[in-house]
Amino acid sequence: MKIKIYLIEHLVWIILLSGCIEDNISPPLTGKLDSVAEMLIYFESQGDFPNSDFAPALVEAEEIFINLNSFLIIDIRPSDEFLVGHIENAVNVISDSLFDYVEKNYNSGYPKIAIVSKNGQSSAYYTCLLRLAGFNNVYSMNFGMAAWNEVFADEWLGNIGDDEGVNFYTNYNFEKNEFNSLPQFSVSSTDESIVARVRKRIKEILIVGFTQNIIFTNGINTNLYMVCYGKRRLYNAAKNGVFGEKGHPFNTASYHDSPLFELRSNKYLQTLPNSEKILIYDYNGQLGACMTAYLRVLGYDVKFLKFGANRLFYSRLLADPELSGFAFTPSIIKGYPFVGGQ
């Protein structure tokens, strides 16, 4: 495959690609590879979290409410929103302190750490970064505080609906790009271990923060490389089980999630442009946020569509039994109690 040529011109790469995930082999990382390829191999040798059924590591509001004392709850919303109302015993931590706080409390006795945001978008983003850093008991609360109480659900409820241009969608299968090289970014020191370099890279992205790091698009920008990340039914609309309805915006390429995981290195990761802006949309923004975090670690210039298909073709999500579980509905809002102040 072409991918084995572009990632590294070395025989060992072919060996690694053939079995590093399935056989749980930790490849010998010597520093002779370029930094991005080495990080990619490392992530895949550690379980490849973004490209697994575990991503984006969601935990339901109900589970947290029932087992409140089993969770260290980290609320990453701005302090003014936190003061208005938050889950009891939650701690408010800003993004540039998040890595150090989780590292300090990783083995503090809590079976699980729950990252909580307003809508589940930024928490999914940060959870993916923390998982890549090796904090495997970190979860993102599904749909954020919007699922906890209706007081916090205004933004979710205000963004569900059908795109004005939905009637101009198509079911044409647009081709992915040709394979190309991985992005490149500078690394301060190649003498450090791969673990140290990965942690440093993740800290850099965490410090930048979510709102500065991600640009939300209110419509579809044809100047971006458009990616639909999900199952076929998310890309190609079906009626009565037959594909053929208008499914996606023009010039959108399809990349499947589970079980194909087409953003793996041995699939189609390197068909993503390494010097163009990319826009990902998924079901409800949370998996897209996770994949955006992962791809940004690798150096890609990625944005994702906040709320995903819920703001593109909400009525279609509701009508499709295979997609309706990804739609935000009033029934998701639990009405659990919350506290104000510190």
Provide an overview of this structure.
The chain has a domain at 166-326: Oxidized Rhodanese, domain 1 (3-Layer(aba) Sandwich). The radius of gyration is 20 Å and the shape is globular. It has helices spanning 3-7, 11-19, 35-45, 61-66, 79-84, 95-105, 121-132, 154-157, 194-208, 210-213, 232-235, 286-297, 314-319; strands at 58-59, 71-75, 91-92, 112-116, 138-141, 225-229, 237-239, 242-245, 252-255, 277-281, 301-304. A hairpin with a 2-residue loop joins strand 7 (237-239) and strand 8. Helix 7 runs antiparallel to helix 9. With 342 residues, the protein is an alpha/beta fold. The strands form three sheets. The protein has a five-stranded parallel beta sheet with strand order 1-5-4-2-3. Strands 9-6-10-11 form a four-stranded parallel beta sheet. A two-stranded antiparallel ribbon has the order 7-8. Residues 1-32 and 212-219 have low confidence and may be disordered.
What topology does this entry show?
Blueprint: H1 3-7, H2 11-19, H3 35-45, E1 58-59, H4 61-66, E2 71-75, H5 79-84, E3 91-92, H6 95-105, E4 112-116, H7 121-132, E5 138-141, H8 154-157, H9 194-208, H10 210-213, E6 225-229, H11 232-235, E7 237-239, E8 242-245, E9 252-255, E10 277-281, H12 286-297, E11 301-304, H13 314-319
Parallel strand pairs: 1-5, 2-3, 2-4, 4-5, 6-9, 6-10, 10-11
Antiparallel strand pairs: 7-8
User: From the alpha-carbon coordinates, what is the Rg to the nearest angstrom?
Assistant: 20 Å
Number of strands: 11
Q: Give the proportion of residues in helices.
A: 25-40%
- Our estimate of the beta-strand percent is 5-15%
The H-level CATH homologous superfamily of the domain at 166-326, spelled out, is Rhodanese-like domain
Largest sheet: 5 strands, parallel
Under CATH at level 1, the class of the domain at 166-326 stands as: Alpha Beta
Low-pLDDT stretches: 1-32, 212-219
Q: How are the strands ordered across the major sheet?
A: 1-5-4-2-3
Principal-axis shape = globular
